[in-house]
């Protein structure tokens, strides 16, 4: 049974505006209450920023890397007017976020939220809206951002597709075989790749989706091979990803590409020479991560955006303005992912992905943001 939120529902915008115009005559209005809910806390009170991310299961490496970036952002704070406390909820999977989010909103009374993965963002959105606090979702589903309370921050699927197709064209790719896991974000990547590729006459000559539990890909690989593709597009989570990678190698296939997925492989040498698009990470930030977490394997996909979203929220709270008004008014930010931009009237902070190549069994940045 769905949990009942303990916070008041969002009032219609027109009613808040009308109520505000009669503030002196009528006492507290919905608009005044909303302003109170988002007012900056007194300097003596800590500002609580809630963090929710899945750190087990197929996305464990992504989630744990995300969490380390947020923690480092907090450690890096110096000379702020306010004290900032992270309230962290680690969850088993992205679709199981509701109890954690309800606790952060209703019990911990956080002043802002940072959430990893679109599934968790979908759940958090209604809670953040009702509580009238800013929510940053580190995810690529642009429709989540509404500019009012929820903001996405990272390249959305269209951005990934634009950069990926540009690289495919540079490499002379005309025919692509798809081998992809049945998963919402993967399906979204494929859908946008098809739209962008069609503009340049790039054809998808074979399409094969598989379940996460699949272990035998040989028939699928053979069918794709018969279509004589220039490239095999592979996207999945482990364990399916590395099983597929091994069977592609066994079939003598070495021309693979992806979006993000190769960075998640536990055996990246299986995809030696393969390329993929992923987040740009400034070399300085990557070096700092390596020094801060020596010997720890990190996947940088969400890390710069996790770090930057915390810093953007702090900037808003420190500005002396209402934090929501501050974030809504932002149109660009220069951070660890390079330049992030947001068009006026949208809720998406976007950046251009980079191209990475597996070389010597490790991801190597091929280009800066192109």
Output the CATH homologous superfamily of the largest domain: Response regulator
* CA-atom Rg in angstroms: 22 Å
State the strand order across the main sheet. Answer: 7-6-8-9-10-14-15
Kindly estimate the percentage of residues that lie in beta strands according to DSSP: 15-25%
Helix content: 25-40%
Indicate the mean pLDDT.
87
Kindly give the count of domains.
2
Main sheet summary? 7 strands, mixed
Question: What is the architecture of the largest domain at the second tier of CATH?
Answer: 3-Layer(aba) Sandwich
Principal-axes geometry comes out as elongated
Name of the CATH first level of the largest domain = Alpha Beta
The CATH topology assignment of the largest domain is: Rossmann fold
The number of helices is: 13
């Amino acid at each position: 049974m769905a949990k009942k939120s303990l916070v008041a529902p969002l009032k219609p915008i027109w009613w808040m505006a009308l109520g505000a115009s009669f503030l002196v005559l009528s006492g507290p209005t919905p608009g005044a209450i909303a302003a109170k809910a988002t007012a900056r806390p007194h300097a003596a009170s800590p500002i609580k920023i809630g963090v929710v991310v899945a750190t087990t299961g197929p996305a464990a490496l992504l989630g744990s890397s995300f969490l380390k970036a947020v923690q480092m952002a907090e450690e890096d704070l110096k000379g702020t007017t306010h004290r900032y406390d992270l309230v962290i909820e680690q969850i088993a999977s992205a679709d199981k976020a509701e109890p954690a989010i309800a606790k952060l909103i209703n019990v911990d009374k956080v002043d802002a939220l940072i959430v990893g993965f679109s599934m968790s963002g979908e759940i958090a959105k209604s809670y953040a809206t009702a509580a009238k606090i800013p929510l940053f979702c580190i995810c690529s589903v642009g429709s989540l951002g509404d500019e009012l309370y929820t903001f996405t921050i990272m390249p959305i699927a269209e951005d990934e597709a634009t950069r990926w197709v540009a690289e495919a064209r540079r490499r002379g790719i005309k025919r692509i075989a798809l081998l992809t896991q049945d998963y919402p974000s993967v399906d979204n990547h494929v859908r946008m790749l098809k739209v962008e590729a069609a503009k340049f006459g790039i054809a998808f000559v074979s399409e094969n989706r598989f379940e996460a539990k699949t272990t035998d890909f040989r028939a699928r690989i053979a069918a794709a091979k018969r279509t004589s593709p220039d490239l095999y597009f592979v996207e999945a989570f482990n364990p399916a990803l590395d099983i597929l990678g091994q069977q592609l190698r066994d079939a003598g296939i070495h021309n693979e590409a992806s979006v993000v997925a190769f960075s998640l492989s536990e055996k990246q040498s299986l995809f030696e020479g393969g390329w993929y698009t992923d987040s740009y990470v400034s070399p300085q930030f990557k070096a700092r991560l390596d020094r801060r977490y020596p010997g720890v394997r990190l996947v940088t996909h969400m890390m710069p955006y996790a770090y930057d979203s915390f810093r953007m929220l702090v900037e808003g709270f420190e500005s002396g303005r209402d934090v929501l008004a501050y974030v809504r008014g932002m149109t660009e930010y220069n951070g660890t992912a390079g330049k992030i931009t947001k068009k006026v009237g949208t809720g998406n902070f976007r950046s251009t992905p980079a191209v990475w190549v597996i070389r010597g069994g490790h991801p190597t940045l091929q280009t800066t943001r192109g």
